[in-house]
Design goal:
The structure is a single chain. This protein has 323 residues and is mainly alpha-helical. The chain has a single domain, classed as Farnesyl Diphosphate Synthase (Orthogonal Bundle). The protein contains 15 helices and 2 strands. Helix 1 crosses helix 5, helix 2 runs antiparallel to helix 3 and helix 14 runs antiparallel to helix 15.
């Protein structure tokens, strides 16, 4: 099997990264979507929701592994990224070839396996669940594409940043998991539509918190370096706000973001300038408003009180998390 370079084959590596790791936010949202729509524990719909939730968590690992390769991120969840870990195994084994290329190639395969396993978990579910799954996968890829091309084009407009956040983060992490849970419970289309509208608001809060943590998060808590989004010129709403608020030397520094003339040591300078300009405070207000709007939207729907409370507890935890 050629495992003389690897401590374990891809399935074992995948299992080690899946078990006992992560916040399980997507699983939580699928569960509360099911409960909110009146789903009963132990029913056939419950078992379908569990399969969909397991697929969500496995797909999330695919997204993380491939995202780290694309962004050349060295850490994830407080440990080396998959491609960095595989490069280390190559070096430790004294193997032939380029260890960094080997690490990237193995990480791509690991992500491919995670996506394949996720699709297998969804295979055989009712058509409405498979349709939601397909939409989720396409939105995730479209969001990542827009993230990459937006950074390459130096996009700083709020419209593009909002679209990236909605597709790559909000829809995939909040909206579609809620939909999968509600559909598994047998919710009618109009109820699902209302739930998704509130989910979009929760997703917005989640994505905005991601942006804040990407600039001002504590690496010892988030498990990844702070400032990478600035270094890479990611098209976030923070940079859209900064474009409108910074002037003089700070605006000139912002103009260099995403170029070879913007270095790691420039990141804290720009982050401080953005904070002084009120970017962080404005995003905090936007997060609070999105959560309030989501709560009002859910209150207008015929959902179970327990399910509504569960969704909002998860929404607040996601909106004001530290990692």
């Amino acid at each position: 099997m050629g495992l003389d370079v690897l401590p374990d084959d891809l399935p074992g590596w995948l299992g080690g990264l899946l078990l006992g790791r992560g916040k399980r936010l997507r699983v939580t949202m699928a569960h509360w979507g099911y409960v909110a729509a009146g789903g009963a524990p132990g029913a056939a719909g419950y078992r379908r929701m569990i399969r969909a939730a397991a697929a969500l968590e496995t797909l999330h690992l695919f997204a993380l592994v491939h995202d780290d390769v694309m962004d050349a991120s060295t850490t994830r969840r407080g440990r080396p990224s998959a491609h960095v870990e595989a490069s280390g195994w190559h070096r430790a084994a004294g193997a032939d070839g380029d260890p960094d290329a080997f690490g990237v190639n193995l990480a791509i395969l690991l992500g491919d396996l995670a996506h394949t396993v996720a699709d297998r978990l969804v295979d055989g579910l009712p058509p409405a669940l498979r349709d939601a799954w397909y939409a989720l996968c396409v939105e995730l890829i479209a969001g990542q594409r827009a993230d990459l091309t937006g950074a390459a084009a130096g996009r700083r407009d709020a419209r593009h940043a909002e679209g990236v956040a909605r597709l790559k983060s909000g829809r995939y992490s909040i909206v579609r998991p809620l939909q999968l849970g509600a559909v598994a419970a047998g919710a009618p289309p109009e109820l699902v539509a209302g739930l998704l509208a509130s989910g979009d608001r929760i997703g917005r809060a989640f994505a905005l918190r991601d942006d804040l943590l990407g600039v001002w998060g504590d690496p010892t808590t988030t498990g990844k370096p702070a400032g990478d989004d600035l270094l890479e010129g990611k098209p976030t709403e923070l940079l859209a706000l900064a474009r409108d608020r910074l002037a003089g030397p700070d605006a000139a520094l912002l103009d260099r973001v995403g170029t070879s003339s913007f270095a790691r040591e420039d990141v804290p300078r720009l982050a401080d300038a953005m904070r002084r300009a009120g970017v962080e405070a404005e995003v905090e207000r936007m997060i609070a408003a999105a959560v309030r709007d989501a709560e009002a939207g859910l209150a207008a729907l015929p959902l179970t009180p327990r399910g509504t409370a569960g969704i909002m507890d998860a929404a607040r935890a996601a909106a004001w998390r530290e990692a």
